[in-house]
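hey so i finally got around to running the thing on that chain from the lab meeting. sorry it took forever, my laptop kept dying and i had to restart like 3 times. anyway pasting the input first so we r on the same page abt which one it is
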Amino acid sequence: MAASAKTPDVVKEPHFEDSALAGEDTLQGADVATFLQEQDATVLARLCQHPPSCLAIFTMLPPLSKHLVMRMLYINKPLPGPLVAAWFRDSARESLKASIAVLNKMHLWHSEGDMVTLDAAFRQNLRTAIMGGGTPWVSNPPKADKHTPTAQALDEHQTSRWEAVLNFLVGTARLESEDVRNCLYHAGLKTIDAATGAEILTPLGFQFLLQDRRTQLWFYMLHFLRNGVYVDSLTKEVAKLDLVEAMEFVFKMSFGQLGECYPSEGLTPTQAAVLRHACEVGLAYRRKRKSTRYYPTQSALVLSKEQLETKTEDKRFLVVETNFRVYAYGHSDLKVELLDLFTERVYRLPNLAVANITRESVRAAFLRGITARQILRFLQVHSHVQMKEHAAASFPPLPQTVSDQIILWERERTRLGQQPGVLIRNFGSAVEFETLRTFADGAGILLWHNELSRTLIITEAGLPQVKRFRKKQAPS
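ok and heres what got predicted. didnt touch it at all, straight out
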C-alpha cells in the first residue's frame, strides 16, 4: 500500500507591523475627548446648551459610547442599569464599563441607584442638532461678497498657512505671526538651546511633525485653549479666555459650509481671539484683518470628523523598496525635511528625493523621541497610490522586511535595563552563601547570583532586610 504524503503545516512568519500599529499612538495633548474629560461639570453643562457643541462632542466619543447615546437618545425617563447591560454580550462587559466611564467623566451619564439616564440638556440639544429645529446657528448672515474666494483659493490658503508653521518648526523659514510662534514655544514643540542660543526642535516637536494634519491642528488649538489667556489685538493686554465660548466657536466653525461666509461682527473678545488664531493657522480665511466676514476652510470642517480629507497627489508621495530605499515625489521642501527625520538623504532632484532607511538614521530618530509606530504610520499614510493598489491586491502597503526591521531596531534599545543594586561577596562558607541567597530569592529582592564566586546582587530597597536577616543569623 502506498503511503500518502502528509502535507506539511504552513507556519506563518511573524509580522511585527500589525502589532506595532495596533491601537492608538495619538500625540499627547491632541485628543479632544480626553480634553473634555478633564473639564469640570460646569464647563460641560454650558457646552451642552449649544446644539453644535453637543453634535461635536458626540462625534468625539468612542464607538460603544456613541452606541449607548443613540440607544438612550429618545428615552426621556431613566432605565434600569441591568436592562442597559442586557443590550450587550457578556464578552463586552469590560468594554461597556469603559464606555460608560467615558460618558461619566464628561458628565453626560447620570446614575441614581440602579437607574441610569443621559444628561437631559445633552439629549435634547443633540436631538436638535441631528433632526433640526431650534434657533439658527448663525444669526444675521452677511450678504454675498464679490470677493468670495474659490475652493482652490481656500485650499491654497490653508496649505500655505499650515506649511509655514511646519517650516518654522523644522527651521527652514521664519514665522510672521508672533501669536502662533509664542503658542508653539509654550506648547513645548520648540525651545532655545541654553548653550548656543539657537532654536531647536524638542522631542515632542519631532513627534508632532509626523502626525496627520488634523491631529496637529487639534494639538495646537487645544493647547491654545489650555493656556487660558490671549493677547487683546487692540490693547495688547493679556486677557482671560472663556473656554466655553472658545469651544463653541470652534465646534460651530467645524460644521460650516465650504465657500460660505459667516459674520465676524458681534463676536465676543474670546471668539475674536480664536478666529484670529484660526486664520493664522489656516482654519479660516479673511481677506483683511478687519473684514466683517470669514470663510471656514476644509481643515476647519474636518475637525469634528475622524480624518482630514486631502488631495491624493499631495498625500501619497512615498515609494518604499525592500532594499530600504525611499523615493519621495514632489516639489515640496517640507516633505523632504520630514523624511530627513528618520532617513539619510542620497540625492535631491527638482521633483524627486531619494533616501535610505538605515540603522543609524532610525536610531537617531528614536533618540529624538520618535517611535517606530509613528515612523511606520507616516510611511503608510503617505505611500504612493501605486503601493496602495498593490496593498489592495495581496501585499502590505510597506515591504514587510522594512517594517519588521524598524521595529527590531527599536526593540534593540530595550534589550537591557538598568537597575541599581548592592553587591554582596566574600562569604565565609558555601552554607552561608546559600542561606542568604535563599532568603533574598524568597523575599523577591535577588537580582543576580553566582555560586562559583559566591556573589549576590540584591536591590537597594532590600538591603535593610538583608542586614536584619544577617543580624538574626549571627551567633550570639
